[in-house]
Amino acid sequence: MKKVTASVVCLLTCLFSSIAVAQAAVPTLASANWAVTAPHNLAKERPTRSEVEQLLGLGDTTENSPSLCSFAFADLRRNGTLSLVAASDSSGRGFCNDIEITDRTPDGFQSAGPTSAEIGQGENVTKLIKDIAGDGRLELVIEMEVGGYQGGAHCGLEWPVIFAWTGNEYADVSAQFKDYYRQRLAELKTNIAALQLTPAPEEATTSKSQSTGDDGPHVEGRVIGLPQVVPTANSALATNSYDTDCLKAEEAKTERFLGISRDAGMADAVRWSESDDPLTREFAATVFTDIGTPEALNNLKSLASDSDSSVAVDASDNLRTLQLGPISTYEVDTEQWSPNDN
Known about the structure:
The protein is an alpha+beta fold. The chain has helices at 2-25, 28-31, 49-56, 178-194, 236-257, 266-273, 278-291, 294-303, 309-322; strands at 67-74, 83-89, 98-105, 108-114, 129-130, 139-146, 157-165, 170-172, 203-208, 220-225, 332-337. Strands 1-2-3-4-11 form a five-stranded antiparallel β-sheet, with helices on one face.
């Protein structure tokens, strides 16, 4: 009898253990209620970081595995069901620029996200969620990279892109918010006007003045000279100069976007292309590519023969990009998946 009892206990223990393992295999969030009206609203009663990582398949111990940077829930589709906005880092350097929107659908889960977000955009995704028009409809405003990453020495051209649910998909809807970009343009002009370059080191010489009279005093004076300084990639002067250039490039791109001037920024881009600094010439190639006019194309061809190999390669790559035409909207990649896929 004891043997039978022991066998039954063992059988039940194994059965319950199997059930527990099966339940543990399903992420908690996969079975949670994502409704806005749910008793435990996920936007207000946030799940744990580990629960989000488990759902998205992030944060495991394998080498080079993407890690979760931040997350937030919001009613982006305006259908009464919350969406999960999450940012992850796959670089291993804390870039946090992989941003995805995850929604529960009748067929499982669907993730959508843009490519080439600016570094650091996902450090706090809550800041990306905005109601731009004040109409209760939520959008994501993400700073996107224009051109390639230049290794951090030179700032890159950034562009705020507005993404929203259109009823069928998440898409770039920036063209619907011209007032937002007009306000942005005004802010850029103010920031550019206020930004001052770091002054160059002073060089001073001391000299004696002539007497003011027979018995007058002699006065020592200092003559201050500001030598001409050529910025280097590591100097404070170069950093401020780069920042100013990037603000001017964004200002010009905004003017082109708003239809103020088709070739806004050309004069600056030409000046940058003639710089002694290879990083600045490489930046000019990015701007020429974004302008996309025949004049810009001709200048880009010149940079494709630059004496610096990095500049020449970058310009050549951009020429191939221009064959497809200037980027007018930013695409959003979409994927359907199941929690069991992770």
